[in-house]
Amino acid sequence: MDYIKAFLVGGVICMVVQAIMDNTKLMPGRVMVLLVVTGGVLGFFGIYEPFAEWGGTGASVPLLGFGNALWKGVKEGMAEEGLLGIFKGGFTATASGICAALVFAYLASLIFKPKMKE
Amino acid sequence: MEVNKRLYENYVKEITPVHSRWKNLLWAFLVGGGICALAQLAVNSFMSMGMEKDAAMAWTQMLLIGSSILLTGFNIYPKLVKAAGAGALVPITGFANSMVAPALEYKVEGQVFGVGCKIFTIAGPVILYGIVSTWVLGILYYILSLWNIGW
Question: pTM of the full predicted structure?
Answer without folding.
Answer: 0.89
